[in-house]
Every structure is written in structure tokens, then in C-alpha cells.
Design goal:
41% helix; mainly alpha; 4 helices
Length: 68
Amino acid sequence: MTVTRAEIADPLEGAFASGPQKGGGLASAAELQGARPEVIELLARLPEGTYSTLRDLWEHLPDVPRGT
């Protein structure tokens, strides 16, 4: 099953409330929120760096569809 941007955004809704996050931290946050393993794996593959908003992720995930 394809991972969508909506499916990534849902478990990360509050992840940026405490400030920018690293990719591994986003994978952990998604896991804590019960995201599917495919979502967690995708987030874990993000390039090292700091992400301030969800919009920052899309630059590195251009092939992930928006979804519903």
C-alpha cells in the first residue's frame, strides 16, 4: 500500500510544537502515534538534517502522493 502525505502528516501533527525535529525523531514520533510501519520506514530514510515544518519534508519526498 502506498504511503501518502496525509498519512505522514496525521501522526506528525504535534511533532513540531517543541521546535525543529531531526528525521529520526520524526520516525519515532510517528511510531508513538501508531503510524504504519511503511510510514515509519519512509521517515527513517529522510536525509540527516533538521526539519522545521511538514513542508520541509515534501522537498525530500517528491514522489509521495498527497492522498486523502
